Amino acid sequence: MKCTTCKAQAVVALPSHTAGFCEHCFLAFFTRQVEKGIRRAKLFTFEDKILVALSGGKDSLALMLILHELGYNVTGLHIDLAIPGSSAQARAIVEAFCSRHGLNLIVRDMAEEGLAIPDVKKRLRRPVCSACGKIKRYFFNKAALDGGYTVLATGHNLDDEIARLFSNILRWDISYLSDQGPYLPASGGFAAKVKPLYRLSEFETANYAFLKGIDWHWAPCPYSPGATFTYYKKLWANLEEEMPGRKLDFYLGFLKNGRTAFSREEDLSGAPLVPCKVCGYPTSSIVCGVCRIREAMSQSEESGKAELDF
User: Fold this and answer.
1) Domains, the chain, ordered by start
2) DSSP per residue, 198-233
3) 279 pLDDT band (50/70/90 cuts)?
4) pTM here?
């Protein structure tokens, strides 16, 4: 197959775009897609101070590198979850990546916070994934606000967004459908959140990371086998194989025509947000979910596991 742009030998085939690219032209294509996404969704400008959440996976590292190469003011943030057989490797990869490229990095260690995920798992009756997500979002937002960052960026790609959108549609979750998109403005004590890779598939970000020589953490979390989103991604991968381009068309179509149908002036999600009485974090309860987790962690072992409402 020849490169669609320069007619050299192609190394990446993209049926969704009816195209194939050599290494140079693919990297240029990837860059254009990121720039187009930033521009069309008005995600941020070169004046913004951007905090990039770095898990150690290919998507977040690819995002950090391309934003840096485009000239944006970026700092990485890594949350060390203290999960045996996973977290140490992920942290080492993130630290080596940032050191190699001369990038600023902030690390928040959950063991030092008394919130090591294995310990949290022992204290809760429900699956730990919801608590882990709550903890990560809490420290993402806290680091962004405490550091004066104007934007919090995550490496969610098109496949991630499609899986989330599909899940929300299956449940007709209006509160999430109204907010879903690559840009969520700052409000009520939350930093602005952006997803600059929303136009690019996981396959495309993997090829970018490979061609740029990025060493990434690939092992799945040992606590999340059989995750629902993984199943949804497989369904959409099968559809995409039969109908190339369907994922991007569906997601962009939702952003253009579907999301407005779920917009509402009033808050349908329940109680209004108020500052947590313990830490000041925005919450619909008196005490936020992370402070309730901390409270459960401080209880004696004799009291048994806690059943918390996050």
Assistant:
1) 41-270 (3.40.50.620)
2) TTS-HHHHHHHHHHTT-----PPPTT-TT-HHHHHH
3) very high
4) 0.92
